[in-house]
Amino acid sequence: MAENGNLLAEQRRALILDEVRRRGGVRVNELTRRLNVSDMTVRRDLDALARQGMIEKVHGGAVPVVEASTHEPGFEAKSALELAAKEEIAREAARLVSPGSAVALSGGTTTYALAHHLLHVDGLTVVTNSVRVADVFEHAHRQGGPGAGARGTTVVLTGGVRTPSDALVGPIADRAIRSLHFDLLFLGCHGLSLEAGLSTPNLAEAETNRSFVASARRVVAVADHTKWGTVGLSTFATLDEIDTLVTDTALPEEVRAALAEQVGELVVAETGEGEDGRADEGSGPAAENRAAAED
Q1: Where is the domain boundary, 18, 33, 64?
Q2: Roughly how many angstroms between the first and final C-alpha of the chain, as a whole number?
């Protein structure tokens, strides 16, 4: 890890997490030297990572959280994490969408954030297997919210069996998706790595996501830095199948360089946040829309 005392909190934490996963554990005194920050700052970073379930604190340092490759967190558990990164990734991804496009969104909290930005794009046909994503458009239509002014938007929700992350998967969803053709597909993921590509702990969801990939003219993956190094039970897309990967600035530079060699295009969304690494949940149009949708 590079020694740099001017890193943002999320950048420091991404570097710490990468070091923990790569070495199998780190000590506080090692991190203070390498990052050129105080003992208190390192401990605060470790506390934040531990609260997010990314590491386990031990006496004098931290070790990786040993999690089964089949463990699948629920939507609510994931939705409160990395709000700033997900919001900026969603904002950047939305710029890729043109009015009148046929757009597919897989399940996930980042695609959920993206859906709020797509409320303002006219003439979209949105196909999704995410109950949460479909609800964003339905709520805006019923309440006359900020997205109600988008003209001619059609939303298609696939059938299927509901997962803990509120995605519909299985043969019914697969058949529906494979009968369609999309200009753009936005894929979330549980894990991202050079070897395993995009992965999920849910076998049925992996197959449904493969159906999405097979039906899309352009595949866009949206993944924040915390997905790096995580490998779920099943891979549903290799990196060379990804036309564009949108991530955030907290992903370490060396990781970005490696990913840029594998995907068609790497887009890094700038994230504005405070020292504690949290987004301002009460500001911005997408934050307002999410608050309304969750009422």
Answers
A1: 64
A2: 43
Max mean pLDDT among 62-66, 135-139, 219-223 falls in 219-223
Same-domain status, 101 and 211: yes
Cα dihedral 144→147→148→150 (10° resolution) = 170
Q: Where are the beta strands (DSSP E) in the chain?
A: 26-27, 55-58, 61-64, 102-105, 125-128, 154-157, 161-162, 168-169, 184-187, 191-193, 197-200, 219-222, 234-237, 244-248, 265-269
The tens digit of pLDDT for each residue in 145-185 reads: 554 555 779 999 999 999 888 899 999 999 999 999 999 99
pTM here is 0.69
| H runs (alpha helix) in 165-202 | 171-178
Question: Does 120 share its domain with 30?
Answer: no
**Which amino acid is it at 224?**
D
**DSSP state letter for 182:** B
Q: What percent of the chain has pLDDT over 70?
A: 81
**Per-position DSSP letters for 78-118, written without gaps between them:** HHTSSHHHHHHHHHHHHTTPPTT-EEEE-SSHHHHHHHHHH
How large is the angle between the packed helices 109-118 and 83-94, nearest 10 degrees? Answer: 50
Alpha-carbon distance 211 to 219, whole Å?
12
Q: Are the beta carbons of 194 and 65 closer than 8 angstroms?
A: no
